Amino acid sequence: MITETAAVRIRPLTGAPTRLLLPKEQYWEDLADYLPRGGYARTPDAEQIRELVRVANLRGRGGAGFPTAVKLASVAEAAGPRCVVANGEEGEPASIKDRYLLRRRPHLVLDGLLLAARAVNADHAYVYVSDDASAASMRVAIAQRRPSIPVRIVTVPAGYVAGEASAVVRAIDGGPAKPTAKPPHPYQQGVGGMPTLIQNVETLAHLALLVSHGAAAHLEHGTTECTGTFLLTLSRPGGPAILAEVPYGARLGDVVTEHLGPIEVSGVLMGGFAGGIFGPEALDLPLTHEDVRNAGGMLGCGAVILLGPEDCQVSAAADIAAYFDRENAGQCGACIKGTDAMARDLAALASGTAGPDDVARLERLSANLLRRGSCGLLDAACATAASLVRTNRPLVDAHLAAPCRRCADASSPPGETRFRINW
Amino acid sequence: MKIQVDSTKCQGYGLCEQIASALFVLDEFGYAATPGDGTVPPEQIEAAERAIAECPATAVRRVA
């Protein structure tokens, strides 16, 4: 687990003016710092903003990579009134990018949020977070800027599912931050029954940069399908963690070498806890949603965890499965039972006490429970188990034959995942 | 007609699967889901409506 602030390193894009990450010397971006960077400067109308987003082919940075232009159009075309939400509830334990933006660059986020509101003709906005530092930072920015529409900050307890779109709506409406069945989707019926645009804070940051610097600057980086840059949280269980702005399409191995040097990698967790566990061959993958999905994983919110020679993929899987067993919303039967069963079986595998029936159950559940929950958590648990039993069967069989020393040495803090970055 | 099982409500009674076995698949814990996208063939509409009415958890609903 990473707990020291010094173990987190911020790496802006080299050779570029300030984009998403501040120059290392700067700690908090005041209104007086943000304005000279082109902040809040232009006032395009709704159609101009939507056209800019279309031309830039901006996609969401919350994990799904959904085309932002389509989302904006859906909400704008629905009958009003409408509202917008900046989603900064960073449920993924190995991601810190949303917290960074909220705590260090609140004006960039606010600028993007107000532009999104204009793009869909919304008359009020929310900032949805799960930590007090982010809330405090945004509160100061809102007080400095005094936006023309009401912007309310909503703080909820942190959790893996708390940032899911329908959970966001439910929590803002006064309920628990837990998902509901869809349809209706938030863009149809969201907060207070209104069509609601929910965008990750990094997506809003990109929107602000699009307006202040233009589409061409955005399109200088990335690929045709995945344009621009994204914030990558790259970490190893014992530290360090790197927050870097990376062009889509960069090869993971190159990014690792650039920021961590020639380290030995025995496994990769792509998309934080949702993408499954890969072997070191994942270093050859270009970092785009399509390339990672075609390889059987997911890029998600850009959290990548590197396993070293002392880490065993089985104990990594057991740690993640235990996390899902604790963190699920406790609503859907298949998930409550499924995460419990998969956590037990993976724990048994890691402790050298598993039998063939346990492995058979892991194989069965990881395939049969897909899409049976109301959110992505059950699918993420299935992806973790599947990546082990289907793509690394020799490793699994070795754990049936004899206990694993690396698994025995691995320890997760009680009731917590060792992959969490506390920052 | 399209139906869906609201998994946040399903308690695993299994009545839906008894009433309309072609429209529901139970997982190994007994919780229900609709295969595919939940489209109901015309000859199954009556059974689907009964499943909606009979579920004690009101977990089966029409979505289209």
Structure description:
The complex is a heterodimer of chains A (423) and B (64). Chain A is of the alpha/beta class. Chain A has two domains: 5-219, NADH-ubiquinone oxidoreductase 51kDa subunit (Rossmann fold, 3-Layer(aba) Sandwich); 313-403, NADH-ubiquinone oxidoreductase 51kDa subunit, iron-sulphur binding domain (de novo design (two linked rop proteins)). Chain A is built from 17 helices and ten strands. Chain A has helices at 31-34, 46-56, 68-77, 97-104, 106-119, 132-145, 165-172, 201-213, 215-219, 252-260, 289-294, 313-327, 333-350, 356-368, 377-389, 393-401, 405-409, and strands spanning 8-11, 83-87, 124-129, 151-155, 196-200, 229-235, 241-247, 267-269, 277-278, 303-307. Chain A has a six-stranded mixed sheet, with helices on both faces. Chain A has a four-stranded parallel sheet with strand order 4-3-2-5, with helices on both faces. In chain A, a hairpin with a 5-residue loop joins β6 and β7 (241-247). By secondary structure, chain B is an alpha+beta fold. Chain B has one domain (3-62): Alpha-Beta Plaits, CATH 3.30.70. Chain B is built from two helices and four strands. Chain B has helices at 15-19, 45-54; strands at residues 3-5, 25-26, 32-33, 60-62. Chain B has a two-stranded antiparallel sheet. Chain B has a two-stranded antiparallel ribbon with strand order 2-3. In chain B, β2 (25-26) and β3 (32-33) form a beta hairpin. The mean pLDDT of chain B is 97. Classes of the chains: A alpha/beta (423), B alpha+beta (64). The A-B interface holds A 178-181, 183, 329, 331-335, 337-338, 364-365, 368-369, 371-374 and B 4, 6-12, 27-31, 33, 63.
The helix-and-strand class of chain B reads: alpha+beta
| Rg over alpha carbons of chain A | 21 Å
SSE order of chain B, one letter for each helix or strand: EHEEHE
Tell me, what is the CATH class of the largest domain in chain A?
Alpha Beta
Mean pLDDT metric of chain A: 95
CATH architecture identity of chain B: 2-Layer Sandwich
Q: Helix count of chain B, per DSSP?
A: 2
Main sheet of chain B, how many strands, which sense, barrel?
A: 2 strands, antiparallel
Uncertain spans of chain A, ≥5 residues at pLDDT below 50?
none
- Please state the structural category of chain A: alpha/beta
Q: Strand order across the biggest sheet of chain A?
A: 1-7-6-10-8-9
